[in-house]
Every structure is written in structure tokens, then in C-alpha cells.
TrEMBL record:
Lineage: Bacteria, Pseudomonadati, Pseudomonadota, Gammaproteobacteria, Oceanospirillales
Keyword Protein biosynthesis tagged: no
Listed transmembrane segments: 12-33, 63-83, 95-116, 268-290, 302-319, 331-349
Membrane topology term: Multi-pass membrane protein
Subunit structure as annotated in this protein's UniProt entry: Component of the lipopolysaccharide transport and assembly complex. The LptBFG transporter is composed of two ATP-binding proteins (LptB) and two transmembrane proteins (LptF and LptG).
Protein name according to UniProt: LPS export ABC transporter permease LptG
Gene responsible for this protein: lptG
Locations listed in the record: Cell membrane
InterPro entries: LptG (IPR030923), LptG/LptF_permease (IPR005495)
UniProtKB keywords: Cell membrane, Membrane, Transmembrane, Transmembrane helix
Length: 353
């Protein structure tokens, strides 16, 4: 890499990092203001701050495409404002060479974001969920929001939360008999023992007999269920908080059970194609810097970047959710706005060059 390539790359990289920090700061502040109403004797401000901090790695990975767009506009815009890009072009440096130099740091940042999504964000999100659920409620109560419902053999099971070690929290098992309930089992936690055997802890069993209702309390009880521990853990997490390997594993399980896996497939492709989305947005930014934003102020470039980024993100959400709704492959829905940006960027760059 020549000195001029390194100079362009460093300008774009620093601008991208600054934008990412600003976006995370805004997200932190807005989330804190929104969530402060949840603070109580059990869910303290320290707990709230912990939850927000644990969720920042996942937010960083999500913001990388937008940070790449605005960072490229700022980095190259600064060079344009000082006429450095004009000198480079006058010296015979083609636009594609400038674009190649700008794409290199963005690719590195995007791959770093993939690593965060795969190895850091899922574990951090899990810790945030556990803090939010179990410091935000009394220990002897159950929350019926934010968890997951699933069908296990002939029973319907609610899991309030789970961790990666296979331990479940806030279990409720509803066993139906045609149109009536046979019993309800509530347990504070559950641990996998072996095979299909689980141990329930802090158990309250309510039996619905024809003429009376019977309640029994036990410290421990056995629970036989055919679902694997890792699948119970993955089922209790939101799709957007899972890593690529976890999304792939749970997709395969759902398909084996002949269940709908489209939501998990959608999140898989959104995460997997983030580096491509970042590069597509860099091409759009490059064409804008040499085109309509050549003489624009820094504020104008940032505003334009925000508008383009919001339009891209909304298009990604729209086409992605639409693909799930109309039952066609999610990869197509995710790819449409990315391909539009790629084609638009390539066409505009060729015209400027």
C-alpha cells in the first residue's frame, strides 16, 4: 500500500471510528432516558447501566454499515474540502483507486464487527437479559413477558430466561388433556441431567382433578423432555441476539421439527451480509463525494449520510420482513437493498470517473 493509500485509509478509518463512538453515545443516552422508569429497589441504576453496557457490543456491530457510510463521507469530504482529492485526481489517480483505498479500512472494521457479533455480543446480551429479568422482579414471581413459549412433546412450556450453560429460569409447564388442563408445574430453575432428563428446582405443581384442585410443593422434581439443552437455550433468546453459528444450528433444528425458521434465517443473512452492505454504502458515499456533495459543508455531508443510512436501513427492514411475510427466501429480501446500493454506487462512480 502506497503512502497516499494509507493516508486515504487512515482518514476514512478515523472518521468511521468517531461516527461509531458518537452513535453508541447517542444510543446509550437515549436508552438510559427510556429505561430509567424501570429503576426500582430491586432494579437499581447500577443494574440498568450494566444492562446498557452489555448491549453496546451488539449495537456496535449493527451500526458499522451506517458508520461506514457517514465516516466515508466525512473522511473523503475533509480531503475534498482541503482540495487534496482534487490534487490526487489532477495527478492522475483514478476514482476507483481512491475508492479501493477507502474500502480497505471499512472491510477491516466490518470483519471486526462480524467477530463481535459471533463471539462477544451473544454472551454480553445473555448477561444483560439475566440482569434485566431477575433484578427487575421479585425472586418468587414469574414474568410472562420477554420469555419464550414452545411446545415440548405434548406439553406447552414457558421459559423466562436461560443461560449458555443450559440452566433455565422461571419454568412453567402446562400439560393439557384435550380441552382441559391436567396440571401446571412452576419451577424457579431447571438443570439438564442427562439425555432427556432435567431436574426442576423450587417446584410448585397444581393438579386439576374433576372435583378439586390440588397443589404440591417440592424442592426438586424430574422432568423428561425430548428437546436438547442447547435448543432450549436458543429458543429463549431473541433471533437478533444470536451468533451466526447459533442461528444456523437453530435453523437446522426447526427445519427438522418442520417448524418455521424464516425469522432466524432472516437474521442470519442480515448479520452475514453486513460487510457487503458496508462496502455498498461506501461506494454510494464515494459517488456522492465526487458528485453532488463535492462542495457541500461537513454538516451537509453528515445530514446526507444520515438520510441515506436511514433509507437503507428502512429498506433492509422492509424487504427483509416482507420476505418472511410472503414466504420467499430471506436472502433475497436482504440482498435487494444491498444490490441496489452496489449497482447505484458502481454506476455513479463510473460516471464520475
Amino acid at each position: 500500500m502506497s503512502k497516499i493509500d494509507k493516508y486515504i485509509a487512515s482518514s476514512v478509518l478515523w472518521a468511521c471510528l468517531i461516527v461509531a463512538v458518537v452513535l453508541l453515545g447517542l444510543d446509550f443516552a437515549l436508552t438510559f432516558i427510556e429505561q430509567i422508569k424501570k429503576v426500582s429497589d430491586t432494579y437499581t441504576i447500577q443494574s440498568l447501566l450494566q444492562v446498557i453496557m452489555y448491549r453496546l457490543p451488539g449495537k456496535l456491530a449493527e451500526y458499522i454499515p451506517i458508520a461506514s457510510l457517514i465516516g466515508t463521507l466525512m473522511g473523503l469530504g475533509t480531503l475534498a474540502a482541503t482540495s487534496e482529492l482534487t490534487v490526487m485526481r489532477a495527478a492522475g489517480m483514478p476514482i476507483w483507486r481512491i475508492g479501493f483505498a477507502a474500502c480497505q479500512p471499512i472491510l477491516v472494521v466490518s470483519l471486526l464487527g462480524m467477530g463481535i457479533s459471533e463471539f462477544v455480543a451473544p454472551m454480553a446480551e445473555q448477561k444483560a437479559n439475566l440482569i434485566e429479568k431477575f433484578q427487575g422482579q421479585e425472586s418468587d414471581t414469574f414474568s410472562l413477558t420477554g420469555g419464550v413459549w414452545l411446545k415440548a412433546d405434548s406439553d406447552f412450556v414457558y421459559i423466562d430466561a436461560a443461560d449458555a450453560t443450559g440452566k433455565l429460569y422461571g419454568i412453567q409447564i402446562f400439560s393439557p388433556n384435550e380441552q382441559q388442563l391436567k396440571y401446571i408445574i412452576k419451577a424457579t430453575s431447571a438443570q439438564h441431567v442427562d439425555g432427556s432428563l432435567w431436574q426442576l428446582n423450587g417446584v410448585t405443581q397444581t393438579i386439576f382433578a374433576p372435583d378439586h384442585i390440588e397443589t404440591n410443593k417440592m424442592k426438586h422434581a424430574d422432568w423428561n423432555v425430548s428437546i436438547k439443552p442447547e435448543h432450549l437455550f436458543l429458543a429463549s433468546q431473541e433471533p437478533e441476539t444470536l451468533s451466526l453459528s447459533q442461528l444456523m444450528s437453530y435453523q437446522q433444528y426447526l427445519r427438522q421439527q418442520k417448524l418455521d425458521a424464516s425469522q432466524y434465517e432472516l437474521e442470519f443473512w442480515i448479520t452475514a451480509l453486513r460487510p457487503v452492505a458496508s462496502l455498498a454504502l461506501v461506494l454510494v458515499a464515494l459517488s456522492s463525494v465526487f458528485g453532488p456533495l463535492r462542495s457541500s459543508t461537513m454538516g451537509g455531508r453528515i445530514f446526507s449520510g444520515v438520510i441515506i443510512g436511514l433509507a437503507f436501513q428502512n429498506a433492509l427492514n422492509l424487504f427483509g420482513r416482507m420476505s418472511v411475510a410472503v414466504n420467499f427466501p430471506p436472502i433475497i429480501g436482504v440482498s435487494i437493498p444491498i444490490l441496489i446500493c452496489l449497482l447505484a454506487g458502481i454506476i455513479l462512480v463510473r460516471r464520475r470517473g
